[in-house]
Write a structure and sequence with these properties.
It is found in: Cytoplasm. By secondary structure, this protein is an alpha/beta fold. The chain contains 14 helices and 10 strands. Helix 13 links the parallel strand 8 and strand 9. The protein is globular and about 55 Å long. The structure holds fructose -6-phosphate (F6R).
Length: 369
Protein backbone atom coordinates (compact mmCIF):
# COMPACT_ATOMS: atom_id res chain seq x y z
CA UNK A 1 0.00 0.00 0.00
CA UNK A 2 3.01 2.29 0.35
CA UNK A 3 3.67 1.66 -3.34
CA UNK A 4 7.30 0.63 -2.79
CA UNK A 5 8.15 3.62 -0.60
CA UNK A 6 9.42 3.26 2.97
CA UNK A 7 6.88 5.74 4.27
CA UNK A 8 3.50 7.07 3.26
CA UNK A 9 4.98 10.53 3.48
CA UNK A 10 7.51 9.75 0.72
CA UNK A 11 4.76 8.29 -1.42
CA UNK A 12 2.57 11.33 -0.85
CA UNK A 13 5.40 13.74 -1.66
CA UNK A 14 5.95 11.84 -4.91
CA UNK A 15 2.24 11.96 -5.73
CA UNK A 16 2.19 15.76 -5.74
CA UNK A 17 2.42 16.34 -9.51
CA UNK A 18 -0.65 14.15 -9.96
CA UNK A 19 -2.46 15.67 -6.97
CA UNK A 20 -1.97 19.16 -8.41
CA UNK A 21 -3.03 18.05 -11.91
CA UNK A 22 -6.12 16.27 -10.53
CA UNK A 23 -7.14 19.35 -8.58
CA UNK A 24 -6.95 21.45 -11.76
CA UNK A 25 -8.71 18.84 -13.89
CA UNK A 26 -12.07 19.88 -15.28
CA UNK A 27 -11.77 23.32 -13.70
CA UNK A 28 -9.84 25.08 -16.43
CA UNK A 29 -10.29 24.75 -20.16
CA UNK A 30 -7.93 24.96 -23.12
CA UNK A 31 -8.67 28.64 -23.59
CA UNK A 32 -7.61 29.45 -20.02
CA UNK A 33 -11.10 30.05 -18.63
CA UNK A 34 -12.15 28.80 -15.20
CA UNK A 35 -15.15 26.56 -14.60
CA UNK A 36 -16.05 26.38 -10.94
CA UNK A 37 -19.79 25.79 -11.30
CA UNK A 38 -19.49 23.47 -8.29
CA UNK A 39 -19.06 26.57 -6.11
CA UNK A 40 -22.78 27.02 -5.77
CA UNK A 41 -22.70 30.50 -4.28
CA UNK A 42 -24.63 32.65 -6.79
CA UNK A 43 -22.45 35.01 -8.85
CA UNK A 44 -24.72 37.84 -7.68
CA UNK A 45 -23.80 37.01 -4.08
CA UNK A 46 -20.09 36.81 -4.93
CA UNK A 47 -20.30 40.22 -6.59
CA UNK A 48 -21.68 41.68 -3.36
CA UNK A 49 -18.88 40.30 -1.19
CA UNK A 50 -16.86 43.10 0.38
CA UNK A 51 -14.44 41.14 2.55
CA UNK A 52 -12.88 37.67 2.59
CA UNK A 53 -11.77 35.88 5.75
CA UNK A 54 -9.79 32.65 5.55
CA UNK A 55 -9.76 30.34 8.58
CA UNK A 56 -7.73 27.17 9.09
CA UNK A 57 -5.22 25.43 11.36
CA UNK A 58 -1.62 24.28 10.96
CA UNK A 59 -0.48 23.58 7.43
CA UNK A 60 -3.90 24.54 6.04
CA UNK A 61 -3.44 27.92 7.74
CA UNK A 62 -0.19 28.40 5.82
CA UNK A 63 -2.09 27.74 2.59
CA UNK A 64 -4.61 30.33 3.77
CA UNK A 65 -1.85 32.88 4.39
CA UNK A 66 -0.76 32.47 0.78
CA UNK A 67 -4.41 32.73 -0.34
CA UNK A 68 -4.52 36.22 1.16
CA UNK A 69 -1.84 37.47 -1.23
CA UNK A 70 -3.61 35.86 -4.19
CA UNK A 71 -7.10 37.08 -3.27
CA UNK A 72 -5.99 40.63 -2.65
CA UNK A 73 -4.02 40.68 -5.87
CA UNK A 74 -6.64 39.19 -8.19
CA UNK A 75 -9.81 40.57 -6.60
CA UNK A 76 -8.72 43.75 -4.78
CA UNK A 77 -10.98 42.62 -1.93
CA UNK A 78 -9.66 43.01 1.60
CA UNK A 79 -8.71 39.57 2.90
CA UNK A 80 -7.65 38.40 6.34
CA UNK A 81 -6.33 34.99 7.21
CA UNK A 82 -6.73 33.80 10.74
CA UNK A 83 -6.03 30.76 12.86
CA UNK A 84 -9.43 29.16 13.40
CA UNK A 85 -8.69 28.76 17.11
CA UNK A 86 -8.12 32.52 17.49
CA UNK A 87 -10.87 33.70 15.18
CA UNK A 88 -13.75 32.14 17.05
CA UNK A 89 -12.87 33.59 20.43
CA UNK A 90 -12.43 37.15 19.14
CA UNK A 91 -15.99 38.20 18.28
CA UNK A 92 -14.96 38.90 14.67
CA UNK A 93 -16.92 41.42 12.58
CA UNK A 94 -18.82 39.50 9.92
CA UNK A 95 -22.00 40.01 7.94
CA UNK A 96 -23.85 38.83 4.84
CA UNK A 97 -21.25 40.41 2.60
CA UNK A 98 -18.36 38.48 4.17
CA UNK A 99 -17.08 35.38 2.39
CA UNK A 100 -15.39 32.99 4.79
CA UNK A 101 -13.11 30.33 3.31
CA UNK A 102 -12.47 27.36 5.63
CA UNK A 103 -9.54 25.18 4.58
CA UNK A 104 -9.21 21.65 5.95
CA UNK A 105 -7.70 18.43 4.62
CA UNK A 106 -9.70 16.17 6.92
CA UNK A 107 -12.85 18.26 7.07
CA UNK A 108 -13.10 17.32 10.75
CA UNK A 109 -10.83 19.82 12.52
CA UNK A 110 -12.88 21.05 15.46
CA UNK A 111 -11.51 24.59 15.63
CA UNK A 112 -12.13 25.16 11.92
CA UNK A 113 -15.62 23.70 12.21
CA UNK A 114 -16.48 25.94 15.17
CA UNK A 115 -15.11 28.97 13.29
CA UNK A 116 -17.33 28.30 10.29
CA UNK A 117 -20.39 27.69 12.46
CA UNK A 118 -19.78 31.01 14.14
CA UNK A 119 -19.37 32.73 10.75
CA UNK A 120 -22.63 31.29 9.42
CA UNK A 121 -24.48 32.38 12.55
CA UNK A 122 -23.37 35.93 11.74
CA UNK A 123 -24.80 35.59 8.23
CA UNK A 124 -21.50 35.12 6.37
CA UNK A 125 -21.28 32.73 3.42
CA UNK A 126 -18.83 29.89 3.94
CA UNK A 127 -16.87 28.16 1.20
CA UNK A 128 -14.94 25.06 2.30
CA UNK A 129 -11.73 23.88 0.64
CA UNK A 130 -11.51 20.26 1.68
CA UNK A 131 -9.90 16.95 0.72
CA UNK A 132 -12.39 14.55 2.29
CA UNK A 133 -15.70 13.92 0.57
CA UNK A 134 -18.73 14.16 2.77
CA UNK A 135 -16.83 15.20 5.91
CA UNK A 136 -18.35 17.59 8.43
CA UNK A 137 -16.80 20.90 7.30
CA UNK A 138 -18.06 20.73 3.69
CA UNK A 139 -21.44 19.41 4.90
CA UNK A 140 -21.89 22.46 7.08
CA UNK A 141 -20.66 24.99 4.52
CA UNK A 142 -22.62 26.86 1.85
CA UNK A 143 -20.34 25.49 -0.85
CA UNK A 144 -17.24 23.36 -1.23
CA UNK A 145 -14.31 23.14 -3.59
CA UNK A 146 -12.72 19.74 -3.15
CA UNK A 147 -8.99 19.23 -3.45
CA UNK A 148 -8.22 16.01 -5.29
CA UNK A 149 -5.09 14.94 -3.44
CA UNK A 150 -6.48 11.47 -2.72
CA UNK A 151 -6.25 10.02 0.79
CA UNK A 152 -3.40 11.47 2.84
CA UNK A 153 -2.20 8.92 5.39
CA UNK A 154 1.03 10.39 6.80
CA UNK A 155 0.28 12.71 9.69
CA UNK A 156 2.43 15.47 8.19
CA UNK A 157 0.53 17.13 5.38
CA UNK A 158 2.28 17.38 2.00
CA UNK A 159 0.17 16.73 -1.09
CA UNK A 160 -2.92 18.12 0.64
CA UNK A 161 -1.04 21.39 1.16
CA UNK A 162 -0.11 21.76 -2.50
CA UNK A 163 -3.68 21.07 -3.58
CA UNK A 164 -5.01 23.52 -0.98
CA UNK A 165 -2.81 26.14 -2.61
CA UNK A 166 -4.16 25.24 -6.04
CA UNK A 167 -7.74 25.50 -4.75
CA UNK A 168 -6.98 28.89 -3.17
CA UNK A 169 -5.55 30.20 -6.45
CA UNK A 170 -8.61 28.90 -8.32
CA UNK A 171 -10.97 30.59 -5.87
CA UNK A 172 -9.04 33.85 -6.07
CA UNK A 173 -9.07 33.79 -9.87
CA UNK A 174 -12.74 32.75 -9.95
CA UNK A 175 -13.67 35.63 -7.67
CA UNK A 176 -11.73 37.94 -9.96
CA UNK A 177 -13.46 36.47 -13.02
CA UNK A 178 -16.96 36.67 -11.47
CA UNK A 179 -16.52 40.17 -10.13
CA UNK A 180 -15.03 41.37 -13.38
CA UNK A 181 -11.75 42.54 -11.89
CA UNK A 182 -8.63 41.62 -13.80
CA UNK A 183 -10.62 39.22 -15.98
CA UNK A 184 -9.00 38.69 -19.32
CA UNK A 185 -5.40 38.26 -20.20
CA UNK A 186 -3.93 38.07 -16.75
CA UNK A 187 -6.27 35.35 -15.51
CA UNK A 188 -5.77 33.32 -18.69
CA UNK A 189 -2.03 33.64 -18.34
CA UNK A 190 -2.09 32.49 -14.72
CA UNK A 191 -4.36 29.58 -15.54
CA UNK A 192 -1.86 28.47 -18.18
CA UNK A 193 0.99 28.86 -15.68
CA UNK A 194 -0.93 26.77 -13.15
CA UNK A 195 -1.24 23.97 -15.69
CA UNK A 196 2.57 23.92 -15.95
CA UNK A 197 3.02 23.37 -12.20
CA UNK A 198 2.76 19.55 -12.18
CA UNK A 199 5.73 19.41 -14.57
CA UNK A 200 7.70 21.82 -12.38
CA UNK A 201 7.02 19.78 -9.24
CA UNK A 202 8.11 16.65 -11.12
CA UNK A 203 11.41 18.34 -11.94
CA UNK A 204 11.94 19.44 -8.34
CA UNK A 205 11.40 15.87 -7.18
CA UNK A 206 14.04 14.62 -9.62
CA UNK A 207 16.70 16.89 -8.13
CA UNK A 208 16.25 16.15 -4.41
CA UNK A 209 19.29 13.96 -3.74
CA UNK A 210 21.54 16.90 -2.66
CA UNK A 211 18.74 18.11 -0.35
CA UNK A 212 18.58 14.70 1.29
CA UNK A 213 22.37 14.62 1.71
CA UNK A 214 22.28 18.09 3.25
CA UNK A 215 19.51 17.03 5.63
CA UNK A 216 21.53 14.03 6.81
CA UNK A 217 24.55 16.26 7.44
CA UNK A 218 22.45 18.46 9.73
CA UNK A 219 20.93 15.65 11.80
CA UNK A 220 22.97 16.63 14.88
CA UNK A 221 21.83 20.27 14.87
CA UNK A 222 19.38 21.64 17.44
CA UNK A 223 17.97 24.58 15.54
CA UNK A 224 17.12 25.47 11.96
CA UNK A 225 15.66 28.85 11.00
CA UNK A 226 13.60 29.67 7.90
CA UNK A 227 13.23 33.08 6.27
CA UNK A 228 10.94 34.33 3.54
CA UNK A 229 9.18 37.42 2.31
CA UNK A 230 5.75 37.91 0.73
CA UNK A 231 4.40 34.42 -0.18
CA UNK A 232 7.81 33.03 0.78
CA UNK A 233 7.03 33.87 4.39
CA UNK A 234 4.24 31.28 4.79
CA UNK A 235 6.51 28.84 2.93
CA UNK A 236 9.16 29.48 5.60
CA UNK A 237 6.57 28.85 8.32
CA UNK A 238 5.53 25.62 6.62
CA UNK A 239 9.15 24.46 6.32
CA UNK A 240 9.62 25.11 10.03
CA UNK A 241 6.39 23.33 10.98
CA UNK A 242 7.38 20.23 8.99
CA UNK A 243 10.73 20.15 10.75
CA UNK A 244 9.20 20.54 14.22
CA UNK A 245 6.65 17.83 13.79
CA UNK A 246 8.88 15.33 12.01
CA UNK A 247 12.43 15.94 13.24
CA UNK A 248 11.45 17.29 16.70
CA UNK A 249 13.92 20.11 16.17
CA UNK A 250 13.64 23.72 17.17
CA UNK A 251 12.60 25.29 13.91
CA UNK A 252 11.22 28.75 13.38
CA UNK A 253 10.05 30.68 10.35
CA UNK A 254 10.38 34.44 10.13
CA UNK A 255 9.40 37.20 7.76
CA UNK A 256 12.85 38.25 6.57
CA UNK A 257 12.00 41.90 7.15
CA UNK A 258 11.55 41.13 10.85
CA UNK A 259 15.13 39.91 11.26
CA UNK A 260 16.49 43.16 12.62
CA UNK A 261 13.54 43.49 15.00
CA UNK A 262 14.79 40.58 17.05
CA UNK A 263 15.47 37.22 15.40
CA UNK A 264 18.88 38.24 14.03
CA UNK A 265 20.13 37.92 17.62
CA UNK A 266 19.68 34.16 17.24
CA UNK A 267 22.23 33.93 14.43
CA UNK A 268 25.44 32.27 15.54
CA UNK A 269 28.27 30.48 13.88
CA UNK A 270 27.18 27.63 11.60
CA UNK A 271 23.47 27.99 12.40
CA UNK A 272 21.54 26.61 9.41
CA UNK A 273 19.15 29.17 7.94
CA UNK A 274 16.94 28.27 5.00
CA UNK A 275 16.02 31.26 2.86
CA UNK A 276 13.21 31.20 0.30
CA UNK A 277 14.11 33.65 -2.48
CA UNK A 278 11.38 35.13 -4.69
CA UNK A 279 11.78 35.13 -8.44
CA UNK A 280 14.22 37.80 -9.66
CA UNK A 281 11.85 38.33 -12.61
CA UNK A 282 8.97 39.28 -10.35
CA UNK A 283 8.87 42.28 -8.04
CA UNK A 284 12.56 43.18 -8.06
CA UNK A 285 12.41 45.02 -4.74
CA UNK A 286 11.43 41.78 -2.97
CA UNK A 287 14.36 39.98 -4.51
CA UNK A 288 16.88 42.70 -3.67
CA UNK A 289 15.72 42.87 -0.08
CA UNK A 290 16.10 39.18 0.49
CA UNK A 291 19.54 39.09 -1.07
CA UNK A 292 20.64 41.70 1.47
CA UNK A 293 19.00 39.65 4.26
CA UNK A 294 21.09 36.67 3.18
CA UNK A 295 24.24 38.82 3.28
CA UNK A 296 23.33 40.10 6.75
CA UNK A 297 22.90 36.66 8.29
CA UNK A 298 25.90 35.22 6.53
CA UNK A 299 28.10 38.04 7.82
CA UNK A 300 27.06 36.86 11.32
CA UNK A 301 28.06 33.28 10.69
CA UNK A 302 24.84 31.63 9.46
CA UNK A 303 25.14 28.62 7.20
CA UNK A 304 22.84 29.75 4.38
CA UNK A 305 20.65 27.25 2.57
CA UNK A 306 19.14 29.16 -0.32
CA UNK A 307 16.11 28.09 -2.33
CA UNK A 308 16.16 30.14 -5.52
CA UNK A 309 14.93 30.14 -9.07
CA UNK A 310 17.20 28.50 -11.64
CA UNK A 311 19.55 31.07 -13.10
CA UNK A 312 19.32 33.50 -10.18
CA UNK A 313 23.03 34.34 -10.16
CA UNK A 314 22.66 37.14 -7.60
CA UNK A 315 22.29 34.68 -4.70
CA UNK A 316 25.21 32.41 -5.64
CA UNK A 317 27.97 34.32 -3.78
CA UNK A 318 26.03 34.20 -0.49
CA UNK A 319 24.73 30.64 -0.55
CA UNK A 320 26.53 27.88 1.33
CA UNK A 321 24.02 25.46 -0.15
CA UNK A 322 21.85 26.15 -3.18
CA UNK A 323 18.57 24.47 -3.96
CA UNK A 324 17.38 25.41 -7.45
CA UNK A 325 13.70 25.42 -8.30
CA UNK A 326 12.07 25.97 -11.72
CA UNK A 327 10.90 29.46 -12.63
CA UNK A 328 7.35 30.21 -11.56
CA UNK A 329 5.46 33.48 -11.18
CA UNK A 330 5.90 35.07 -7.75
CA UNK A 331 2.42 34.23 -6.45
CA UNK A 332 2.64 30.60 -7.60
CA UNK A 333 6.18 29.98 -6.35
CA UNK A 334 5.05 28.31 -3.09
CA UNK A 335 3.87 25.34 -5.18
CA UNK A 336 7.47 24.57 -6.09
CA UNK A 337 9.40 26.11 -3.18
CA UNK A 338 7.65 24.02 -0.52
CA UNK A 339 8.60 20.68 -2.01
CA UNK A 340 12.33 20.72 -1.07
CA UNK A 341 11.33 21.66 2.48
CA UNK A 342 9.09 18.59 2.74
CA UNK A 343 11.91 16.36 1.50
CA UNK A 344 14.36 18.07 3.87
CA UNK A 345 12.15 17.48 6.93
CA UNK A 346 11.35 13.89 5.98
CA UNK A 347 15.04 13.02 5.52
CA UNK A 348 16.05 14.74 8.76
CA UNK A 349 13.39 12.80 10.63
CA UNK A 350 14.67 9.56 9.15
CA UNK A 351 18.26 10.45 9.97
CA UNK A 352 17.27 11.15 13.57
CA UNK A 353 15.52 7.79 13.81
CA UNK A 354 12.03 9.24 14.13
CA UNK A 355 8.79 7.65 13.07
CA UNK A 356 8.05 9.57 9.87
CA UNK A 357 4.40 8.72 9.30
CA UNK A 358 3.37 8.85 12.95
CA UNK A 359 5.22 11.67 14.73
CA UNK A 360 4.96 11.60 18.50
CA UNK A 361 2.01 13.33 20.18
CA UNK A 362 0.23 14.11 16.90
CA UNK A 363 -3.00 12.85 15.33
CA UNK A 364 -4.01 13.09 11.67
CA UNK A 365 -7.32 14.64 12.43
CA UNK A 366 -7.73 16.96 15.41
CA UNK A 367 -11.35 16.59 16.48
CA UNK A 368 -10.91 18.15 19.90
CA UNK A 369 -10.47 21.82 20.67
C1 LIG B 1 0.86 19.55 9.65
C2 LIG B 1 -0.53 19.11 9.73
C3 LIG B 1 -1.48 19.87 10.57
C4 LIG B 1 -2.82 20.07 9.86
C5 LIG B 1 -3.84 20.73 10.79
C6 LIG B 1 -5.15 21.02 10.07
O1 LIG B 1 1.61 18.76 8.79
O2 LIG B 1 -0.89 18.16 9.08
O3 LIG B 1 -0.95 21.10 10.95
O4 LIG B 1 -2.60 20.84 8.71
O5 LIG B 1 -4.08 19.90 11.89
O6 LIG B 1 -5.74 19.83 9.63
P1 LIG B 1 -6.90 19.83 8.57
O7 LIG B 1 -6.37 20.34 7.29
O8 LIG B 1 -7.36 18.40 8.46
O9 LIG B 1 -7.99 20.74 9.10
Amino acid sequence: EKGGYDYFMLKEIAEQPKAVADTLLGRIDGSGALHLDEVRIAPSVLREVDKVVVVACGTAYHAGMIAKYAIEHWTRLPCETELASEFRYRDPILDQRTLVIAISQSGETMDTLMALRHAREQGAKVLAICNTNGSTIPRESDAVLYTHAGPEVAVASTKAFLTQLVACYLVALYLGQTRGTKWGDEIRTVVRQLSEVPGHVERVLETMEPVRALARSLAHKNTVLFLGRHVGYPVALEGALKLKELAYMHAEGFAAGELKHGPIALIEDDLPVVVVVPSPRGRSVLHEKIVSNIQEIRARGARTIVIAEEGDEAVVPYADHLIWIPAAPTLLQPLVATVPLQVFACELATARGNEVDQPRNLAKSVTVE
